[in-house]
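Morning F.,

Quick status update on the modeling queue. The single chain you submitted on Monday has been processed. Sequence for confirmation:
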Amino acid sequence: MSDDGFLSGEAPVVAPRSSQRYVTLDGMRGIAALAVALFHFDFIRAPHGYIAVDFFFALSGFVLWQAYHERWKQKGYGILPFMRQRAIRLYPLFLLGILLCTATTLGQMAGGDWNARTAHKIAYSLPTNLLMLPSPVTQALFPINLPAWTLFFELVASFFMVTVLFRLPWMGLVAVCLLSAWALVPVVIERQSANIGALWREWPVALARTAFSFALGAIVARLPQPAVRPRGWVGALCLLAIAYVLGLFVGFGMGVSIPVKTPAIGHYDLTCILLLWPVLLVLGSRFEVPSLLATPSKFLGDVSFALYAVHWALIDPFKWLKDDVGVPALLSAVLYIGTALTVSWCAVKWFDEPVRRKLSAIFRGGTRSPLTASAT
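Structure tokens below.
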């Protein structure tokens, strides 16, 4: 079984003691990554895309528990091997995202859009960001690639999982969820949105979001798993549900759209985070999509982490097409997503997979690769 996290981007999501993928979960995480990319490009295209982050964290907790808990319990799988494996999985695409964002920004500045503040931001934040650490001198944790804050907290949560969550009984995981929700709910209600976490002043809420969803994913992983996952309309409904909730149908006159901060949006976000995501995670882990949807779901799952890691670098060029060249907004969004998916697929095949194989060979004496091993 691969140690698949969602933000950590492990591909594929594999069922325990089986070579069969959780194809529905692959499709769901791909749709969620698309929603995040569209929200950052033009929020009206996916007005609730930012709450996909909480689904990512819950899926990471779910799959990492399944992949590692038994090994940790029976064979004493230690903190260092676990964190080394997580770093190998997270860092290559994280690094690529940072480098592409830096190159895009420098290209804009060289093309006449010089900005001393931006130059200072790169110079001051790049040394720590390259180490996967937040910048100590900017308001944003990762100002060059803003969405990378979630990858940092994914790494923090992985450490929390192997040092704390693995040791907790069922009720201990419930307690973590309750305490995290206690810290999260009032802030979301006050700010009228759960779009919180990218800035230094927001780190306590970011930590609460991460801890709640990781512990929730671990709780779902501890529920009895079916021997056979039926294939059919329930799996397809899971894909439609997450797309609808994240607002991907808004452009077609459907879906839920609350484009400004209001008390309603805060309650909507909390309903998704606290109630809807765990329901969809349970359903997605127990029902598979129809055969017709299996291939696109697998593809979206394979490229989802790369899409999340690199999409920020493509936003400004395609906004230039929309705002300065005059390409229609919908067409610009389609071209942006098409390009982002293509770049993501190339990043996975020609960068991420080879680099991870090389790193795994170095640390494992050239033995098994995490991409082909049945358990890592």
